[in-house]
Amino acid sequence: AVVNKVDRAQPREKLLPFLQELSGRHDFVEIVPVSAHDPRDVERLKQVIAEHIPVSPPLFPPDQLTDRGDAFRIAESIREKLTLELNEELPYGIAVEIESMQEEDGQLVISAVIWVDRPGQKPIVIGAGGERLKRVGTQARHELNQLLGRRLHLTLWVKVREDWADSAQALRQLGLE
Question: pLDDT digit string (tens) for 92-101?
């Protein structure tokens, strides 16, 4: 049992009898008095919880980093770079779909579509003279080269799919369900 706000117990002498009475109500493993204002109390609570939580068997093999495939990870890396680049201009109105991934001449060739909600968003994503899209592609490619441990060629396209975020079918197709 956790007794919070012990710093507010007035008069202070009533706290101990209350804790004794509480221990009689149930066979608690432990009773932990806490004042969230005192970092030592919070640390003590964490220790008590950790002592009593059973250790779970591993849910995944030790060498498995994620339960998602490469296509999803690639799309999310591109989307992350877009979100950082676009900042507040299109924070949620974009999705990335991997159209194709093929091995060619020792490198992975990826074609990805960036979906936006409205036609007016397309030039924002592309940027003046295509500079923003080029910057996003370069950043994503560098990260993906490291992530996948291999060279890759990345081609990005920007297309409009109105109201894709409101369509359950579109969300499923994009792996965002």
Answer: 678 899 999 9
